[in-house]
Amino acid sequence: MKFKYSLFYEKWGYLFGPVLFVFLMACNQKKETSMDNRMAFSNNKIVNEKVTSAESYKIVKVSDGDTFWCEDTAGERIKVRLIGIDAPEPRNYFKKKKQPFGKEASAYATKLLLNKSVKLEMDLNPLDQYGRTLAYAYLSDGTFINEKIVKDGYAVLMTIQPNVKHVERLVAAQRYAKERQLGLWNKTNN
């Protein structure tokens, strides 16, 4: 019996052994649960180690019209996606294609936000599927950034349940921009 096992192992063990090892290691990996992702923030205070608990953040990079990078006083950086709005894409990203008025929206957000301090307000889901922090952002003078970008016509309303805390304000901001043909609502921009 020992001989048959040894022969079997010599013949098939070298093939299936590494496959079995990889399979077992993959099954044993620690995985974040959705609860871990959803518990990143509590009572508008950031409590996990991915994002620190500073109340004010300095914006260090603007990716596009609705996404930016900021850092706290300790230098920890986080990527923030503004809740409730969708700005046109300034360039191709993976499956997303460059859209009309994208460069203008990105330039507007850069002028509005770069090197400014902001406070972040969370809604029910603090992270999106890509791990970005979802937030409503406010400048130090109290300006509601999400609303201002929509009201000035550089983004449109985009609500995703359950993050709808300020949906009425964003609907009113879009109506304002559309009625006045501001930004991307201006017929000459289409």
TrEMBL record:
<dbReference type="GO" id="GO:0004519">
    <property type="term" value="F:endonuclease activity"/>
</dbReference>
<feature type="domain" description="TNase-like">
    <location>
        <begin position="53"/>
        <end position="187"/>
    </location>
</feature>
<keyword id="KW-0255">Endonuclease</keyword>
<dbReference type="InterPro" id="IPR016071">
    <property type="entry name" value="Staphylococal_nuclease_OB-fold"/>
</dbReference>
<dbReference type="GO" id="GO:0016787">
    <property type="term" value="F:hydrolase activity"/>
</dbReference>
<keyword id="KW-0540">Nuclease</keyword>
<dbReference type="InterPro" id="IPR035437">
    <property type="entry name" value="SNase_OB-fold_sf"/>
</dbReference>
<keyword id="KW-0378">Hydrolase</keyword>
<dbReference type="Pfam" id="PF00565">
    <property type="entry name" value="SNase"/>
</dbReference>
<protein>
    <submittedName>
        <fullName>Prophage LambdaCh01, nuclease domain protein</fullName>
    </submittedName>
</protein>
